[in-house]
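For the sake of transparency, this paper describes our internal protein records without simplification. The remainder of this section carries one protein's record, kept here as part of the documentation:
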Amino acid sequence: MEISNEERAHILVQALPYIQKFAGKTVVVKYGGNAMISPELKSAVMSDIVLMRLVGVNVVLVHGGGPEISEMLKKTGKESKFINGMRVTDKETMDIVQMVLAGKVNKSLVQSLSRHNGKAMGLCGLDGNMLMAGKLAAADDLGYVGEIREVNERIINDAISDGYVPIISTIAGGYDGNVYNINADVAAAHIAAKLGAYKLILMTDIRGLLRDKNDENTLIPVVNVSEVPMLKKSGIISGGMIPKIDCCVEAVRRGVKRAHIIDGRIEHSILIEIFSDEGIGTMFY
């Protein structure tokens, strides 16, 4: 779609108050879903991040890589097993998770951002003891799945100070000497809280929190975290949305100003959220 120079100028003027508001602030983006798979959406995300960094927003990108892990397990003849949406991670699977997340996926994202003329630094939770974890306490034994006990933010802040976008894969070191697989939403929430981020953005494959999960026109745009227990009780928050929203609530309660669940299937959804009046998805405050 062609737009005139006057329209371009109007768009920039509309964005100016938001550029001023977010300059110097930190935004943590959890990157996953279709936005990570589709080449067009991936390109749009990288462009958004480069633009945000150029106007002074400190962006931290936290990523998963479930499909890539499952694909590699399949190649090695191992079956992917899940309990309540969480990957069962034995020792061999953990080795593959570490290889795929910290190696293939992380460095691919660094290269992708670089192709868009951005400065990226690929990190994982093992670097500088950034993420320290213990074994996740669960009814079923999930193996080497961890829960974060500590975030050491220095290496992230050092990367930001040097002008880089930290791109973080979510494996963590254990106090017992093991390496643990960490849910990327949970890791992003903990990192955002430790950094004192202004925003946490979780990219998903749905519009946000829906009053009717079968009708995308029933989006709930704004939720006070105090309303979440009632929304769970009424069944509006259910299934796979529960852990994502719990991450948003936890981040807000730990000091993050705003947490958002946005639709990563929409090109430039991050810019729409950050630099427009309407925003996108569901905001928790």
User: Anything to note?
Assistant: The chain has a mean pLDDT of 89. The CA atoms of residues 23 and 55 lie 7 Å apart. The radius of gyration is 19 Å. The longest strand covers residues 26-31.
